[in-house]
Amino acid sequence: MKMRLAIIGAGAAGIVSLKYALEAGFECECIEETETFGGTWNYTDKSGTNKFGFPIHRTMYKNLKTTVPKELMTFLDASYPTELLEYFLTQPQVLQYLTDYVNKFNLEKQIKYYESVVKVEWLSNNTWRILTINIKNNILSSKTYDAVLICSGRYRFPRIPKYPGQELFKGHQMHSCNYRSPEAFNGKRVLIIGGSFSALDISHQLQGIAKMIFLSHKTGMNVKYIIIKTAVKQFCESGVVFEDGTKEEFDVVIYCTGYDCKFPYLTESCGIIVENNYISPLYKNIVNIKHPSMYFIGMVTVNTSFLTCDIQARFVVAAIAKKFSLPIKKSMLKQLKRQVLKLEKNNIPLDHIHKLGINQGNYYKELAKIAPITPTSPILSDVFKVLYINLCKSVFNTTY
Ligand SMILES: Cc1cc2nc3c(=O)[nH]c(=O)nc-3n(C[C@H](O)[C@H](O)[C@H](O)COP(=O)(O)OP(=O)(O)OC[C@H]3O[C@@H](n4cnc5c(N)ncnc54)[C@H](O)[C@@H]3O)c2cc1C
Ligand SMILES: *[C@@H]1O[C@H](CO)[C@@H](O)[C@H](O)[C@H]1NC(C)=O
Ligand SMILES: *[C@@H]1O[C@H](CO)[C@@H](O)[C@H](O)[C@H]1NC(C)=O
Ligand SMILES: *[C@@H]1O[C@H](CO)[C@@H](O)[C@H](O)[C@H]1NC(C)=O
Question: In this structure, how many other beta carbons lie within 10 angstroms of the beta carbon of residue 98?
Answer without folding.
Answer: 22
